[in-house]
Amino acid sequence: MESISSSRSFAGIQGAYSHASTVTGTDMSFAVYVPDHEAGAKMPVLWFLSGLTCTHANVMEKGEYRRLASELGLVVVAPDTSPRGEGVPDDSSYDLGQGAGFYVDATEEPWADHFQMRSYIEEELPALIAEQFPVDMSRQGIFGHSMGGHGALTMALRNPDRFKSASAFAPIVAPSDCPWGKKALGRYLGENKAVWRDYDACALIEDGARFPEFLVDQGAADNFMEEQLKPHLLAEICEKASIPLTLNLRDGFDHSYYFISTFMDDHLRWHAARL
C-alpha cells in the first residue's frame, strides 16, 4: 500500500492510498479518514460507495463528513468505482466501463478480467483495511450514492452478518428495471436476467434476503428519480417484506453533492447509533 496524500482535517487524518489489487489486476485507489484515537484503539468503519463517473476523491472532497466523523469516532472508507488504467476496458459513454463498475463481478468479455468490484469491496479491500488501519471489523456500516447506493444496499442484503447498518442517498434500487442498470448488468453479466437478481436490491428482497432496517434520502427535484432511481419500488418491497425503511423525500434537492452533504450528518449519526 502506498500513500497518495495525507492531510489533517478536524480531529483526524484524511488519507488517499493506492495498492496493487490481485482481484482487479490493477492498481486501485481509495480514501480513508481516521479520527484521532487512543493508542491501540479500534474504531467502527463506515464504507461509502460512490456513483457513476466518480472516483474515491468525490466524496472525500465534497462529502463534508470529517467534522462529525471525528466527533463520533468513525473511520470512513471510500473506494474507487472501478478499475482504471492502461489495458483496462472502457466505453465512450459515462455509464459503462471505467468509473461505472456497478459493484458487480463481471463475467462477460471484455470486462471479466478486471471488473471484479464485488469481490474487491466485499473481500480484498476489507482485508487490507483491517491490516493497515485501526478498525473494529465487527462494527461495519455501509452507505453510498446513486450507483453506490445500489452497491451499499445489495452488499448489505448479501452480507447481513457483516454489516450492522446500511443507508443510501438517491440509490438505484432496481437496476433490472431502469436504463442505467439494464445497460450495465447486460454488458457485465450477460442477458440471463436471473443472474442480475443478485445485484438488484428489490430482487434480493423479493428472493428472501433481509436486513434489519434501511435509511434512504432522496431529492424530490432529482431529475433521475422517476426513470432511474424509482424509490417507490424499494418502499413497496420493504413493506411486503416487513423491513423497516425510513425514506425521506427532500423537497428542492437534486442528485448532487450539495444534496449529499446537506444530509450527511443525519446518516453518520444514524450509523453511529447502530455501530
Automatic annotation (TrEMBL):
The keyword Manganese does not apply. It catalyses: S-formylglutathione + H2O = formate + glutathione + H(+). Pfam families: Esterase. Its EC number is 3.1.2.12. It comes from the Bacteria. Keywords: Hydrolase, Serine esterase. InterPro entries: AB_hydrolase_fold, Esterase-like, S-formylglutathione_hydrol. GO terms for molecular function: S-formylglutathione hydrolase activity. Serine hydrolase involved in the detoxification of formaldehyde. NCBIfam families: fghA_ester_D. Belongs to the esterase D family. PANTHER family: S-FORMYLGLUTATHIONE HYDROLASE. This is S-formylglutathione hydrolase.
